[in-house]
Each structure stands twice: as C-alpha cells, then as structure tokens.
Amino acid sequence: MAILRITKYGEPILRQKLKPVNYADIAPKLPKLLADMEETCLAVHGVGLAANQIGLDYRLALILIPQSDEENAPLKRYVIINPVILSKRGEKLEEEGCLSLPGLWADVKRATDVTIKYIDENGVEQVKRARGLLAKAFQHEVDHLDGKLFVDLVDPKLKPEVKKAIKKLRSNWD
Ligand SMILES: [Zn+2]
Questions:
Q1: Of 31, 102, 119, 149, which is the most exposed, with the fewest CB atoms less than 10 Å away?
Q2: Is-contact 80 64, C-beta < 8 A?
Q3: Which spans in 44-158 are helix H?
Q4: Which CATH architecture has domain 12-93+109-151?
Q5: CB-based burial label for 92 (10 Å; 0-12, 13-18, 19+)
C-alpha cells in the first residue's frame, strides 16, 4: 500500500468533469488502487476521496464513514463508480471541509436526504438512499467528479473572505 499525494485547489484535474469508466477496464487495477486510496484517506482523517484528488481521471470515489454515532464505531467503506444522484430532499447549512483545501472550513448548503445510483467495487449496480453525514459525503464526492468544489457553494457574500483565506493557506500546501 502507499499514501498518495492529494491534489490541491488550483490544479486543473480538480475542475475536470470526469467521464464514466468501463468497470471491466478498471477492475484489475481496483484492489491496489482502493487500498491506496483508503490508506491515504485514513492518513489524513478524511471522510472521502475522489479519483481526481489523487490525479486520476476515473469517475470513482471512496467514502469511509462510521457505521454508527458511537465513539470508535468501525468505518464502512463505500466505493462509488459512475455515481449519479437520482433525487435530493431537504436542505441544511453545515460546515464542510475538503482534503484538497486543507485548513479551510466553510458553511455550505446540502440536501439532507439523497438517493444515489452507482456501481460498487464488485461491479454491482447499487441504488442507495442516505441521510446525514453519508448524504453529505455522497454530494461532496459526486461534485468532485463533476469538477466542483465545496467552496463553489459558499454564500456569494462570503466568497471574498474565502478567497483571501485560500490565498493565505496555499503557501502551506505541497
Ligand atoms: Zn473534497
């Protein structure tokens, strides 16, 4: 396994809308790729990691999320390949961060309840309804695969402030 470098805000691949992949083409690479993505995500205490955050143009993301609200609950891994959000409900303003913008936290509006369709790591199509943190993670990761970042969703009035904060933080990124 290996810890991969995470691409940072400003790198063009984060703004690419990634095209669906053919599962059979990427299947042989998946075991190592997913192990590396999981190790990378764990190393930085992330909730999710999209392929373009490690420089790959696959429409694929990995999510690691506690199975329950209990402290030290085991993490459940979701691998979402070619995900599509089928429906969204509710709305909540909550603080969010991103591994590609380390050090920045800002409030963004997300749906509280989403239904998503994707291919899992075994090549099986799944339709899943999610709420809470998982719903948020699905939306954040699908946005990544569409070339969007959470800061795009920040209230326009706060954008100048966010821009300033990013400028300051950037000097610390690798
Ligand atoms: Zn992110």
A1: 31
A2: no
A3: 132-145
A4: Alpha-Beta Complex (3.90)
A5: middle
- 95 catalytically annotated: no
pLDDT, one tens digit for every residue, the chain (174 residues): 799 999 999 999 999 999 999 999 999 999 999 999 999 999 999 999 999 999 999 999 999 999 888 888 899 999 999 999 999 999 999 999 999 999 999 999 999 999 999 999 999 999 999 999 999 999 999 999 999 999 999 999 999 999 999 999 998 887
Helix/strand/coil percentages in the chain, nearest 5: 35, 30, 35
H-helix or E-strand spanning residue 42: helix 30-43
Ligand 1 centroid vs 79 CA: distance in angstroms?
A: 15
The CA 59 to ligand 1 mean position distance, Å, reads 14
Per residue, the 3-state secondary structure of 132-161, as one string, reads HHHHHHHHHHHHHHCCCCHHHHCCHHHHHH
Q: Please choose, from the candidates 67, 68, 77, 72, the residue with its C-alpha nearest in 3D space to the C-alpha of residue 40.
A: 77
State the Rg of the chain over Cα.
16
